[in-house]
Amino acid sequence: MRTRAIALVAAVLVVATACTGTNATTTPAGTTPAPTSGNRPTVDGAVKTTAAAFTVAPGVEQITVTGAPAKAHLTLVGADQHKILTLVADQDGQAVFAYVPTDYTTAETGTGDGPPTADGTALKAGPGYTIRNESADPVQVSAPTTVMARDDHPPTSLYDGQKLAGVHWAIIGGKPVAGEEVGDGFGYITMRDGVSLSAMVRLPDPTVFGPGPYPTVVEYSGYGPSNPTNPEPGSMIATSVGFATVGVNMRGTGCSGGVFDVFNPAQQADGYDVIEAVARQPWVKFHKVGMVGLSYSGISQLFVASTQPPSLAAIAPLSVIEDPWKMSYPGGIYNAGFTKQWLEQRNAEAAPGGQSWEGKRIAAGDTTCADHQKLRTQNIDFQKFTKALEFRPADEDERDLAILVKDIKVPVYLSGAWQDEQTGPRFATMLTNFTGTDKKHFVLFNGHHPDGYAPINLSRWLEFLQLYVAQEVPKVLPILRAGAPALFEDNFKVKNLNFEPDRYTDLTADQYPEALARWEAEPQVLVRYEMGAGRADAPGAPIPRYEATFPSWPPPNVSAKTWYLGAQGTLTDEKPGSPTDSGTDSYVFDPAIGGVGYASAAAYDFIEPSVKVDWKNTDPGKGLSYVTDPLAQDTAIAGSGHADLWFQSEADDANIEVVLSEITPDGTEFRIQNGLLRAGDRKVDASRSNDLLIQESFAQQDYQTLPHGELTEVKVPIFPVATVLRKGSRLRVQINTPGGDLPLWFFDNNDYGQPHAKQTVARQPDHASSVVLPLLPTGAVTPAAGYPPCPSLRGQVCRAYVPLANTTG
């Protein structure tokens, strides 16, 4: 299984006429003209004009121009006749207006650079936009056109008239059944603006699952879901268990038309159109479809479901993110590791011919795929663009799933790992926001990015899809059970893995309502503990040692527990109260650690039971360590926390990392979780925070340098996690420069003008630094007896505990 992470639609009502450049438009309800803030000059009404000879295609928060002269100066003008932006067309006379600066400017296109400036917004929906070719004499002006919002839907006739053919996929061998060809399942789906997306339809093996119609799922991403010969993991698994699958490439990727972006509203609207077009196909059971996929194709499900397609039955996203900006800037610190690499890969694969299978399609005569490559010159460099967004832009709310998931109305199955080395653990902070549906099931565990496809998790995934998409009593066919161990061994490198035993064997096929009622009566949250230590003969296998269920996440019965930083590296229940147990500790900024990870493995290697790691101890003087006495009872952590530090730096700012670990009685240290924050981003958004979950705004206007010579309160959020520290273990909290404690996330640690800055943390009666964690009541979770071996736990590295003496000041 391949596992990879992680960031233009006009209505059919808007018809562009290529010959004249004029548009017949209607104005969607609720839209408004573009804002005129900033320095934007007014169009000179005295200039002689004529009708445009180029084509204008408006879309969702963008406008595409084609057919203009090479290097023409094309100016976007708002309904108020203010000039917004001039783009110099590429050699093919193309330009795409998607991001606009606050102040009017002129920018080249086709260079691969980012937008003209990071100071601006996405193009806003509204009527009255025109495009002027100011290189022409007289100036050519298009007819007024309307830019759509994400939720301006086209007429249903767009979907009713589209026909998709499929190829039956053999359950054994991963190829079409005898007499059919791979190309029989490849085609295109037309979006509301006329852009077409490449799609690959695979129907289940008819010798096993019959003639159809079939329960159907869509896998939608910018990887290669429509690659005819190489299905993505979600599609491969779903087809093998009896589902028709439709793999669709996002616009600007694969053989799809349009221009690529990362999780923008146009992609979200496209997903709506895909669902509606697919659901109308005659081979779709109930004319309702689900969605599947992990990582990119898991994240896309949440965006699409938030648009509320009427024909969407359910979604099953695995290993997702919360906010794309926070993925690039966890804690406000640039992620120069996995996220940077992922964006660079997206740029490369979205380039003309960026995926090898596209070239094969074109060589075989796919002229549509070939034509779609031309507009790729308009792609921007999203890695450069993201790197320029040091502060979270207001437009990010349109891509913030913590905000959007409340609009999801369909059933949801979501799984994720606390230590996900690619997309991280922030996804769990938004689980409480799924308020639009009470049909939700979250499976949470320690582990790695691909572990949503572990057999034990796939068992619940399959039950969910069979209940909500196939509408049948869940079961795994004997032929699947027979073949599964070889497939799982090939991918997870562990023998004798299989689906869990069927849980509905007491029900007959006609007792679907009873099966559904049983599923919906189960607690919404299942937490799997100590994944990797569930089989003594296979350390690292994706099997838990024990489990617990909760009605919601975070569990409603958690309470905030405060431990205070104490003298001589202690972590105590008591707030410092006298000169003998108070003071300050300090460490020195470590510029090199940001580029250090504890593993050199490639991202896909983390699916295996063991990965070579080297979790180094913090060098003396470059971090602080605080440790509790042995715990008097089992202590269950469940949710988000934070470190409440009274902090001072010799520099204007400081990047801070907090690391939690468990020290067992035999001296083994297991990493639990971490937290990150650039101190200048310490402004807490009180409306989204509580006594445990701390959410900063990361807005530019809220940024504050650290005052020199003063202690300042800085609350460092700690990512969510669930773990049980057994009686006799000790909790360790470390504070240092970000880096060294993760495998694939690296950090650009700015020295803020002081390359050897001393950072100071106070532990005084009136400046009592502490760590605040969410604890369940005693006995709420009963851990398995004894400790897991080191190493064994998936995602949780371990080492021999080495004390770190703090430098006092």
Quickly list its features.
globular; alpha+beta; 809 residues; 9-stranded antiparallel sheet; 14 helices; disordered N terminus; 11-stranded mixed sheet
Please describe the topology of this protein:
Layout (H helix, E strand, L loop, with lengths): L14 E2 L6 E2 L24 E3 L3 E5 L2 E5 L6 E5 L5 E6 L6 E3 L1 E3 L4 E3 L11 E3 L3 E8 L5 E3 L3 E3 L9 H4 L6 E2 L17 E5 L5 E8 L2 H4 L4 E8 L11 H8 L3 E6 L15 H15 L4 E11 L1 H11 L5 E7 L5 H5 L9 H12 L6 H8 L3 H6 L9 H7 L12 H4 L7 E6 L22 E6 L9 H14 L9 H15 L19 H10 L3 E5 L16 E5 L8 E7 L5 E2 L10 E6 L34 E5 L7 E15 L5 E9 L4 E11 L33 E14 L4 E7 L21 E7 L2 E2 L1 E6 L22 E3 L6 E2 L1
Parallel strand pairs: 3-13, 7-10, 15-17, 18-19, 18-20, 20-21, 21-22, 22-23, 23-24
Antiparallel strand pairs: 1-2, 4-5, 5-8, 6-7, 6-12, 9-11, 12-13, 12-14, 16-17, 17-19, 24-25, 26-27, 26-37, 28-35, 28-39, 29-34, 30-33, 30-35, 30-37, 31-32, 31-34, 32-38, 35-36
Helix pairs in contact: 4-5
Folded structure, characterized:
This protein is α+β, with helices and mostly antiparallel strands. It is 15% helix and 27% strand. The protein has 14 helices and 39 strands. Strands 15, 16, 17, 18, 19, 20, 21, 22, 23, 24 and 25 form an eleven-stranded mixed beta sheet that branches. Strands 26, 27, 28, 30, 33, 35, 36, 37 and 39 form a nine-stranded antiparallel beta sheet that branches. Strands 3, 6, 7, 10, 12, 13 and 14 form a seven-stranded mixed beta sheet that branches. A hairpin with a 2-residue loop joins strand 35 and strand 36. The longest helix has 15 residues. The radius of gyration is 28 Å and the shape is globular. The two termini are 53 Å apart. 54% of the residues are buried.
